[in-house]
Amino acid sequence: MIADILTGAIRSGTSVMLASQGELVSERAGVINLGTEGSMLCGALGGFAVTVWSGNPWLGTVAGGLCGLLISLIHAFLVISCGANQLATGLTIMFFGMGVTAFFGKGFVSQQIVGFNPVPIPLLSDIPYLGKILFNHDPLTYLSMLLVPMLWYLIFRTRLGIILRAAGEREEVLFASGINPRLVRYLAVLAGGFLAGIGGAQLSIAYTHSWVENMVAGRGVVAVALVIFASWKPVQAMLGAYLFGAAQALQLTVQQQGLAISPYFLFMVPYVLTLVALLIVERRKQSQTPEALGKVLAGSG
Amino acid sequence: MSQPTSIAFESKSTFLQRHSSWMIQTAAIIAPFILFGIFLTFYEVNPIELYSSMVATTFGDLYGFGEVLLKATPFILTGLAAALPAKAGLVNVGGEGQLAIGALFATWFAIFYLDQMPALIGIPIMLLAGALGGAAWASVVAVLKVKGKLNETITSVLLNYVAVFIVGFFVHGMLKDPNSFNWPFSPEISYSLRLPVINGTRLHIGFVIAIVLAVAVWFILSKTRLGYRIRVLGSNRLAAERAGMNINRMYFWVLLAAGAIAGIAGMIEIAGIEGRLRATVGTNFGYLGFLAAMMAWNNPLRLMATAFLLGMISVAGNKLEIFSGLPSSSVNILMALVLFFILGSGKLVKR
């Protein structure tokens, strides 16, 4: 049963994890994007639609990422070029994503796809206990696991990472060294949107194999919250996402075991857990917030 | 924008600054309608026909006008729930959940305690119950903000999802109608608790309540000492702190008041329209109210106008579905476009 929950944690946490890694990049550059929810929705629908048309889930994944990127472009433009309030803009994009996907998604509700299915990795998946939990997933999940250390290296060990972080901490420094901080922010937000789109596509192509209106159900918002929970560190964000996934997997397991707990309480658990996690972390530290972001969160951005 | 670098970036904006701000505001409202019109032509809908029928239905007869006001009522209230905290520098997006919990409290009271009550006593108690529910739900956000230092935007959105599940829990359980053949909704509330309706329309006195509250919030914000303090807090937190205000206490009570107003919107949905609680009560009303407040630059008086406009668009959405087969949610795209333009033009307008 515990192995089931852990496997499910990774399976249902991957979409949130991808989105939170993307949001992390964006927030490191000083832009908080609640539109992640909208990017995920558009990625889920775009990815699903292209998979239906082409039959190729890889093409669908790329399409999902591009849809997410396009949506985040609106956020980047309004926030960086027009100086709009980041939180309000993100919410509007979330609402926009719901409207657009409800509109274009109507014809896809009953469609079926093959999509991605779990591929056990030879040898590794035979390791007792761990093999089943870690090495029996769909290809996107493996890729997302590889992404985390890569992103960590990129952010903390390369020049590119320093530029990214400088955009979120001290844009004057970047400006002085001849790099346009706005350009860095644009690229960071777009990268974030792309990853959120892929996260959404993972949800529809690999996890549920279907499109349902508003299927992202707050995962994008959770991803934003997890980045704060993770103090803007990729590995912690991954763990947070799997924690969210575990809370969701718990639902299914409890239902399968036939325990008499109202499903509605179980539905709440992942969201409440996210809030509690945020609260615990926020009580411990304050200083690691990227400076530009701190202003937004305090209400003057 | 205090960084030295920003000067170099913003030299372009002088051209637009020469235009008076009202022109930009008007353009920001009109442009999305044009854009959405172009979008509609791809789906073989004539936008001019749609927009003119929108105006015709609204102002054609009393019934149509009443329908628009009816739609606008919850938007005014959830809009106030966003506008009031915005004046204090808070972004409350919890209207959605606060409305749902308000509806839950109101229905609970109506079914278990007020079934035999005459309207004159029952309806006010039900209204208070709704306000209490909304305030209780907002108090979670408020406590997390004040005690936990958590950003209210993120917590209030997350709590919206939780609120919907709570309502779901009750309509599938304790509040479920025993005669509903397993449909998840509450029994109907007593007929005496229904809000009185204006003859010839479906419009109920909930609309009057919304208008009174909007004017009251405007009055408090712009004419009283309390409102002045809220505005100071919103425009310059540091100054408010230096002036010795208890910021956390202000945040707390402003959020609670906002929640109470959204909760009243929930009560009005139950007593004025639905007559019973469903899990889908007021879906998107919170977000649309937030939108209406943004469009009105968080001014309660202008909010009545923007809520009216959103009411018109909502009614048009239903027509769109009936006449052209496009889903009624298409108008959500229009609404989001409107807000994009408002947000984009925000820094160009001097407030």
From TrEMBL, chain A:
<dbReference type="GO" id="GO:0022857">
    <property type="term" value="F:transmembrane transporter activity"/>
</dbReference>
<feature type="transmembrane region" description="Helical">
    <location>
        <begin position="183"/>
        <end position="205"/>
    </location>
</feature>
<dbReference type="GO" id="GO:0005886">
    <property type="term" value="C:plasma membrane"/>
</dbReference>
<feature type="transmembrane region" description="Helical">
    <location>
        <begin position="87"/>
        <end position="109"/>
    </location>
</feature>
<feature type="transmembrane region" description="Helical">
    <location>
        <begin position="139"/>
        <end position="156"/>
    </location>
</feature>
<keyword id="KW-0812">Transmembrane</keyword>
<keyword id="KW-0472">Membrane</keyword>
<feature type="transmembrane region" description="Helical">
    <location>
        <begin position="260"/>
        <end position="281"/>
    </location>
</feature>
<dbReference type="Pfam" id="PF02653">
    <property type="entry name" value="BPD_transp_2"/>
</dbReference>
<dbReference type="InterPro" id="IPR001851">
    <property type="entry name" value="ABC_transp_permease"/>
</dbReference>
<keyword id="KW-1003">Cell membrane</keyword>
<protein>
    <submittedName>
        <fullName>ABC transporter permease</fullName>
    </submittedName>
</protein>
<keyword id="KW-1133">Transmembrane helix</keyword>
<feature type="transmembrane region" description="Helical">
    <location>
        <begin position="58"/>
        <end position="80"/>
    </location>
</feature>
From TrEMBL, chain B:
<feature type="transmembrane region" description="Helical">
    <location>
        <begin position="251"/>
        <end position="273"/>
    </location>
</feature>
<dbReference type="Pfam" id="PF02653">
    <property type="entry name" value="BPD_transp_2"/>
</dbReference>
<keyword id="KW-1003">Cell membrane</keyword>
<keyword id="KW-0472">Membrane</keyword>
<feature type="transmembrane region" description="Helical">
    <location>
        <begin position="97"/>
        <end position="114"/>
    </location>
</feature>
<feature type="transmembrane region" description="Helical">
    <location>
        <begin position="120"/>
        <end position="144"/>
    </location>
</feature>
<feature type="transmembrane region" description="Helical">
    <location>
        <begin position="329"/>
        <end position="349"/>
    </location>
</feature>
<feature type="transmembrane region" description="Helical">
    <location>
        <begin position="304"/>
        <end position="323"/>
    </location>
</feature>
<dbReference type="InterPro" id="IPR001851">
    <property type="entry name" value="ABC_transp_permease"/>
</dbReference>
<feature type="transmembrane region" description="Helical">
    <location>
        <begin position="203"/>
        <end position="221"/>
    </location>
</feature>
<keyword id="KW-1133">Transmembrane helix</keyword>
<feature type="transmembrane region" description="Helical">
    <location>
        <begin position="156"/>
        <end position="175"/>
    </location>
</feature>
<keyword id="KW-0812">Transmembrane</keyword>
<dbReference type="GO" id="GO:0005886">
    <property type="term" value="C:plasma membrane"/>
</dbReference>
<feature type="transmembrane region" description="Helical">
    <location>
        <begin position="63"/>
        <end position="85"/>
    </location>
</feature>
<protein>
    <submittedName>
        <fullName>ABC transporter permease</fullName>
    </submittedName>
</protein>
<feature type="transmembrane region" description="Helical">
    <location>
        <begin position="21"/>
        <end position="43"/>
    </location>
</feature>
<dbReference type="GO" id="GO:0022857">
    <property type="term" value="F:transmembrane transporter activity"/>
</dbReference>
